[in-house]
Design brief:
alpha/beta; 2 domains; 13 helices; 18% strand
Length: 324
Amino acid sequence: MATYRAPCVRLRPVPQMMTAPQISVVMSVHNGAATLRESVQSVLSQEGVDLEFIIVDDGSTDASAGMLDEFALADRRIRVIHQENRGLTRALVRGCAVASGRLIARQDCGDVSLSGRLSAELRAMESSTDVALVSCGTRFVGPGGERLYEISIADGDATDGLMALDLKRVRGPAHHGSTLFRRELYEHVGGYREQFFFAQDLDLWTRLVEHGRHVALPEVLYQASFALGSISGRHRCQQIACAKIILDCARLRRAGLDDARVAAKGTAIVPEWRYEQSANHAAALYFVGVCLRSRADPRARQYFRDALRANPLHLKSAVRLLMG
């Protein structure tokens, strides 16, 4: 078997930082070699901020580990942590634990921080001492880079959306990877909690906004890839179950009570890998097709065809094809 040799990474070397950076960007990677380079370079090319980039290799079995080590040799701002596969939450816990910046920004592998993202979020964070969380608008793209849709919160103060205790009303940032928060406050509220394999972002956000505001920038400064096999798509029921527990925890905290016993219920909600793969894959393909059809993109029809190949009984895709 041929040994993987990463292509030469041409990144501008930077001097070793003598003081703590303004921002620690934290990203987890599990078998993300196909999209890793673009994600890393989108962070390193951010201007107007001093940053370190902490990347946790969460037990990758593809070329990711070797690529990350190459990147770290080329740019001293990158710090790589290798660990056995333990899931996103635990990877983020470990990455944030070694962050030295005053602020922590999230980034997901496969996604892209667009030009000016971190500097814009930094300005918003420093605009007032009562800002606890900053996020930005997000563009979602399909497996082939097709534009699907954008989410942008028009009201700059989005705190109320995370203070809501009703599952139907609670609203968070456009995307987990688009967020920036204060490290000191992150540590004060207990950081990401390992009890939640799912919805760990909502759990953190609801605790952060109990100590400050959520400022949502309307500008689209983050691009997220819609993965056909994403956790949220495969485990929707578990996501909702965790969200209910998280809101119960928030209700207790805001009444001045301890939420530890209720939060512990989250440990029982774990991935159920026995799911109907063809049906889930077809549903994801259909969703991409619907998004493209709403934009009058002719590529939609191919996704409907692919959905039928994955599951010949996916009637919605058949109907869409008949509609032309």
